[in-house]
């Protein structure tokens, strides 16, 4: 659990760190605040090393996520006025001013960064949910990939990533790498 000291909460593992980061994401009437959202997203990549074994995959996923964070940050700065202050403002601006097909096709479009950050976080959530539901790590990884990312990848990328998902560490190793005292504590978090 999260240990308290006089000055701040000190997360003991990645799950606790994410809980704290996500509670700091600001939500307004206009949508989700971009700076606080991106700060939370920047806490995600370290979990790739915990959940996956293949260094080439974790390095790619880290670069990919950092690239999408940069894309969203750039998009937010390009929206006139304060319109890029929220994720919804970025999307509204892009949809009103750009060709919808080009926005959907490009991972570096104003909307592409938002979409791919959402997809990456949905994959991690589905993977961890699968582990919490008792699936073996390889099954949790495969099911998470199949339900969240496979449909957006080419056949070659899907084949590579699917193979990489079979190389996940065992559940007990993931629990150890997450610095969880037990599987039950992980489920609670």
Descriptive labels:
single chain, 189 residues, mainly alpha, two-stranded antiparallel ribbon, 66% helix, globular
Structure explained in plain terms:
By secondary structure, the protein is mostly helical. The chain has helices at residues 14-23, 34-41, 46-51, 55-78, 87-97, 100-105, 110-132, 137-148, 155-165, 171-177, 183-188; strands spanning 3-4, 9-10, 27-28, 31-32. Strands 1-2 form a two-stranded antiparallel ribbon. Strands 3-4 form a two-stranded antiparallel ribbon. β3 and β4 form a beta hairpin. α4 (55-78) crosses α7 (110-132) and α7 (110-132) runs antiparallel to α8 (137-148). The N and C termini lie close together (8 Å).
What radius of gyration results from the CA coordinates?
A: 18 Å
Order of helices and strands: EEHEEHHHHHHHHHH
Mean pLDDT across all residues, rounded? 89
* Largest beta-sheet characterization: 2 strands, antiparallel
Number of strands: 4
Main sheet strand line-up? 1-2
- Segments where pLDDT lies below 50 for 5+ residues? none
Sheet/helix structural class: mainly alpha
How many DSSP helices? 11
Termini, distance in Å?
Answer: 8 Å
Strand content: under 5%
* Overall 3D shape: globular
What helical percentage do the residues reach?
55-70%
Question: What's the helix and strand layout?
Answer:
Layout: E1 3-4, E2 9-10, H1 14-23, E3 27-28, E4 31-32, H2 34-41, H3 46-51, H4 55-78, H5 87-97, H6 100-105, H7 110-132, H8 137-148, H9 155-165, H10 171-177, H11 183-188
Antiparallel strand pairs: 1-2, 3-4
Helix pairs in contact: 2-4, 4-7, 7-8
